[in-house]
Amino acid sequence: MVIGVGVQGLLAxxxxxxxxxxxxxxxxxxxxxxxxxxxxxxxxxxxxxxAADAERFRLEAQTAGRLNHPNVVGMYDFGSHHGRLYxxxxxxxxxxxxxxxxxxxxxxxxxxxxxxxxxxSGLAAAHRQGVIHRxxxxxxxxxxxxxxxxxxxxxxARFADEAAAGLTATxxxxxxxxxxxxxxxxxxxxxxxxxxxxxxxVLYELLTGRPPFRGATPLAVVQQHVDAPxxxxxRLRPGIPQELSDYILFLLAKEPAHRPTAxxxxxxxxxxxxxxxxxxxxxxxxxxxxxxxxxPAMPATSVPAPPTRVSRTVTHSRPRGRRKxxxxxxxxxxxxxxxxxxxxxxxxxxxxxxxxxxxxxxxxGTVATSAPATGTASPASVPAASPAPRQTQEQxxxxxxxxxxxxxxxxxxxxxxxx
Length: 419
Prior knowledge:
By secondary structure, this protein is an alpha+beta fold. The chain has 10 helices and 14 strands. The strands form 4 sheets. A 6-stranded antiparallel beta sheet has the order 1-2-3-4-6-5, covered by helices on one side. A 4-stranded antiparallel beta sheet has the order 10-9-7-13. The radius of gyration is 21 Å and the shape is globular. The protein starts with 9 loop residues before the first strand and ends in a 36-residue tail after the last strand.
């Protein structure tokens, strides 16, 4: 029996719940049959009565409902049944990129680029609709049996326009430490470039088998996102073509303005993924990916063509004389102390919180979209450090507070794009 649904498991006289596929802090996901249209779907049920959770649930429906793209998990329906909110989504037969990496280790560079192009294409579609995902990571990208990547879990996404601002608590930074953009770590508003940085972190991990930064604590990882240069992927895994290694570093530029757009990244990665590339001519062969379990048989990678757009030439040389987004004093000293104080009060920013189990070796499993597996922590919500003692509370909740910048100045107000 599903609480709030009934013994028969029939939701809204239409969706027959069958198997529970996963659960998280806010809800649980079921495989279901749409009796009206005769198709399998994923149904996400809200499990709490908290008003804030209900608002976030509605936001997820609104953000995903704006999008119609082959690289974004589709949203079909939203409603309430006996006082319990539910979402009906596309059901993806496959697993997450986190499970893929856990199963296979580092991926072939051309394959990683092709998958990255699909994720970038989905992000570009979201950005054109004014939607910022804010938690791009391997666990939030589904991979179907035909190798189509689909972005899932818009539960903490935000609209870029002011009309939807303020639904997340003021003074909170939400996200996952391993994939958090520097500006987000400093408490600044999310922007499309923040998603691009997170995509760079994902590609870095797919190519090397590890995120760009590692540390003993999530706070140590966050500090490195702000002021530490990532090691070139080609240095960690000899044989990765230098051109691809350089482009990943381009995605990981500290300054948002110095990163490519998601559209540009989709174009570049798709072109790279279609053309075979030999390892660097230094006599070093590309090490094989570490395999922890037999890999399932899958069709060849399929990369959807990017949306029609004006052709552009993308250079991935790093701009000269760029201002570094450093805050060593703030994050390493007072800022870090304030982050640590927040953590001591019971908040935590997750680092590598996704420890996926490998999918079955025999055949793809049916994995629900837009929900963590049972026991998987949801993205952390961490009070950001206040830039000045005279802090005022914004009624519309449209800003994030973070440590001071390198000049000792607070970031002030930011409206309409983030917490």
